[in-house]
Batch of 2 targets.
Target 1
Amino acid sequence: MKSTFFSVAALAAISSAAPTKRADGPSDADILNYALTLEHLEDTFYREALAKYTVDDFMSAGFDNETYSKIQTIASDEKTHVSFLTGALKAAGATPVAECTYDFGYKDVASFLATASILEGVGVSAYLGAAADIMSKTYLTAAGSILTVEARHSSYVRNTIKQEPFAQPFDNPLSINEVYTLAAQFITSCPSSNPALPVKAFPVLTASSSDMMIMTGSKVMLTTKGYKIDGQVYGAFITVTGPMFVNATAVDGGFEVEVPKGIAGQSYVVLTSCNTAATDDTIVAGPAVVEISGTASSS
Ligand SMILES: *[C@@H]1O[C@H](CO)[C@@H](O)[C@H](O)[C@H]1NC(C)=O
Ligand SMILES: *[C@@H]1O[C@H](CO)[C@@H](O)[C@H](O)[C@H]1NC(C)=O
């Protein structure tokens, strides 16, 4: 029971750290509840899939019993993250969010693993993006210790489904609202007793391409279903050093952007109202997740 030992030891340290807040940002308790929102989503995702698919289902889909076993370990990690964050919030006197109901949309083992890859990648980007807002060093270390594990889950799942396990030398940070925009697409409803978090979802943006493998120079079609965007917009690919802006050409039913050089792996593109900043004030839709083949060094 190594996870229990870790939880107890870490909780003892964390419970002595009172949640604090930057003048203009979310409080640490808000950030922990935001992290818990994502961990509930992942925990439910794996728990439901493992209740649905057997090791034989994995083998029929072309994966082996080792893959099944690793997915069980990932499921266990996510469950432990949920209990860890729930405990940390309670210890700090805050109300932890409870599990919601979700619709993940997978229909077989292969699409489950494809969704797992996206969720793990978003988890990495979420913890990375939130790091700068965490005030308490204790929470920052705790969040960092979850981030590194999510990154290992991500590279394992990516390798298993023949995506580059680490496509770039840097991961992409996402803001709280960018992550929530992606997470909300899986959430059907949440208990009304859950504390409200300072998050908002941007309009949903969906990416598609006629290229089988999307790479540098590929044209990607971005659509906002049921939502019309007027006026000039730009595409912004999110990177750790800031957005890479590209022209977004209005085409029938959406906007077309070209994948710029130097982006690979699980990538995110938003539509923005200007080509100098991609912030809560300028994002008009997205992010959309775009899987870009190859590695940043080969693109
Ligand atoms: C997978 O199956 C092989 C062959 O039956 C077995 O030797 C191995 O221990 C199994 N691994 C796991 C993780 O169950
Ligand atoms: C983007 O659009 C502007 C204005 O239409 C044009 O001058 C520029 O060449 C375009 N850039 C690219 C990379 O296509």
Target 2
Amino acid sequence: MSTKESFCLAVFALLLVSAFGVKDPELKQCKHQCKVQQQFDERQREACVRRCEECSRQKQEREHGGGGHGSYGEEDQYWNRESPIERLRECVKGCETQRGQQRERCQSSCQKEYEKERERYEGNERQEEEEGEEKQQHEENPYVFKDHHFVTGPQTQHGRVRILQKFTDRSKKLFRGIENYRLAIYEADPLTFVVPNHWDAEALVFVAKGKGTASLVTKDRRESFNIKEGDILRIKAGTTAYLINRDQNERLVLANLMQPVSTPGNFEAFYGAGGENPESFYRVFSNEILEAAFNVRRDKIEKLFGQQRQGAILKVSREQIQGMSHHEEGGIWPFGGGESKGTFNIYEQHPTHANQFGQLYEVDSSHLRFLQDLDVAVTLTNISRGAMTALYYNSRATKICVVKDGAGFYEMACPHMKSLQSQNHHEGSSQREQPGSRRESSDTPRYQKISSRLKRGTVVVVPAGHPFVAVASNNQNLQLMCFVVHANDNEKHALAGKRNVINKLERGAKELAFGVPEREVDQVFRSQEEEFFFKGPRQQARDFSDM
Ligand SMILES: *[C@@H]1O[C@H](CO)[C@@H](O)[C@H](O)[C@H]1NC(C)=O
């Protein structure tokens, strides 16, 4: 549990204890608690008081139905909000009991409620960001993306497509090098069909969860692949692709790295097959054109493109799925012992590093040639509970990682934050400090620690050259799936562990650089016997008050 969650719980406990009192004394008591915390400094005290006020306000809203949100559940604590999109799904599910127009009305009112909530939600996020300097440091961590940094593309009650905001929308300065990459997450419920469409982008697909069938239509053929967790496949720009989740219980989740081919950083889906929803692009053409192009009468065309209203992800029966596979023309049978032709599974590779503390799997252009053209690799890191990776950096690659499962945290050394933050205060100071120069006084550290808690779905960007470490929580393994951008000729350089960079320096260089005898350097740098995965810190970092 994060500090913030436990804090709010503590406040709730306080509020309960004094439930007989009136509101004000509760708040007062909470504030008093903040003031008597010995370990807090002034800023932390102020932040504490603000949180008291926030918690109290939340509680009042809940009690008095403030805002009239029936959908706020009991456990929906302020710091642990279900996202609006999750609530939309629930709401739309509720509409399923109704039919026809009533259902549509129900769905559209869900949608309206969602838009309102989303605004409020984003407003809250912004407000949080504006609160207190202490928090700002965390909130301003531009390398971490959470649920609210995704925009939602096509969605139905049976699944959704979530697209991460443009990296350069977060920070132009930091992310120009990966401007033309986008991350999209597809989620399809059990027994669903994702309507055929094509993108104006190259896609590298990683199957994060579930099983299914992917069908790709190119100029003169169709290929169907069985896909399963750990599979990697490429969908070339403009390929018409569709998906079936043929599992009865499990969701199918795909992480896609998109490389737009037309407008840098932007891509769109194009639906031909469809109707009103998904809206078919055929519908925009003039009737005369369509009549001539199809060589049929207008009423037939209107009828065909006027039917579909169920959205881009449809619930299907097992029979429908089987029916589809009976009509296979090319490709392979999607049931029974079919090979995953055309896909490549990351788990079937030998791990690059493996010990009791974790495994690293890597797939690059030596395994899949097309990765050379894309200049991308894919890695999967499985860190055992309580363990950690080596401190290391990538020589030229930037990693875009998604927490696939589990929880933990990461730390990274970053030289950019200071200059981003202090541009106004210390004009020119960043110019004075040449790269490689030693800092002169200890109150202007050049590197800042960037850190964040990691949980399923969190996205982290680790730029080239930046020293980085990831740690699994004490209760769960941490599984990170990463797209490694600019992967060709990339090397990982370890900064701790058996083969670290410092150990390779000659004696004189070590002694000059550290200003101590080599023996003392070696005592530190030669003690770790493991190479890439280590036993984790005895105490886990507790200070993630932003989570
Ligand atoms: C991940 O690690 C756990 C042990 O911590 C192990 O049981 C599991 O098989 C590992 N998964 C992979 C894919 O290596």
